[in-house]
């Protein structure tokens, strides 16, 4: 029995020697942006590549970009640092009261699909623990508005 164990240990030692003798080719420096992902709350602003061609969908998409750029807040339309809530971002990006109304209507419908008890857009905004859900519903609302040709 001990000879069998000696053979296994010798084979294992040989495997370690072979594995450590392999030359690893030099690699270039690693770009941490390819590896490290930063939470959405601190992502650098990236303007949308393609705005939706439909006006309400474009407003929703611009509002998301505005929140990424200026920051997201709760409890105020605009805080002392210039961060905005959902309603504040939409109000800034809408070209008219009718466009704002349509964007808020589509957004509230999208919110209620995932959060059926939410009664208002500001209530949803103030009930989140971070901007991730806010960004997600804005994206989904823009998709819905575009699908409805709004």
Layout of helices and strands, plus pairs?
Layout: H1 2-21, H2 55-70, H3 86-93, H4 97-114, H5 121-126, H6 132-147
Helix pairs in contact: 2-3, 2-4, 2-6, 3-4, 4-6
Characterize this entry briefly.
Helix content is 56%, strand content 0%.
Plain-language structure description:
The longest helix is centred in the first third of the chain and has 20 residues, at 2-21. Helices cover 56% and strands 0% of the residues. With 150 residues, it is mainly alpha-helical. The chain contains six helices and no strands. The mean pLDDT is 84.
Descriptors:
150 residues, 2 domains, 6 helices, 0% strand
The number of strands is 0
Distance between the termini: 79 Å
Please work out how many helical segments DSSP would assign.
6
Helical residue percent band: 55-70%
Percentage of residues in strands? under 5%
Integer-rounded radius of gyration: 26 Å
Based on helices, strands and strand pairing, what is the structural class? mainly alpha
Shape: elongated
What series of H and E elements makes up the topology?
Answer: HHHHHH
Q: How many separate domains?
A: 2
Q: What's the story with the biggest beta sheet?
A: none
- The chain-level mean pLDDT equals 84
Query: Which regions are unreliable across 5 or more consecutive residues at pLDDT < 50?
Result: none
């Amino acid at each position: 029995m001990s000879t069998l164990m000696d053979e296994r240990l010798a084979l294992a030692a040989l495997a370690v020697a072979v594995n450590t003798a392999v030359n690893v080719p030099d690699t270039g420096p690693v770009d941490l942006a390819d590896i490290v992902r930063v939470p959405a709350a601190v992502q650098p602003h990236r303007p949308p590549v393609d705005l939706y061609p439909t006006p309400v969908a474009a407003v929703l998409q611009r509002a998301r970009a505005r929140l990424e750029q200026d920051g997201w807040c709760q409890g105020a339309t605009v805080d002392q640092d210039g961060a905005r809530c959902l309603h504040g971002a939409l109000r800034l990006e809408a070209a008219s009261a009718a466009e704002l109304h349509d964007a808020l209507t589509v957004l509230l419908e999208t919110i209620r699909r995932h959060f059926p008890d939410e009664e208002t857009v500001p209530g949803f905004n103030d009930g989140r623990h971070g901007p991730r859900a806010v960004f997600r519903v804005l994206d989904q609302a823009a998709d819905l508005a575009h699908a409805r040709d709004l």
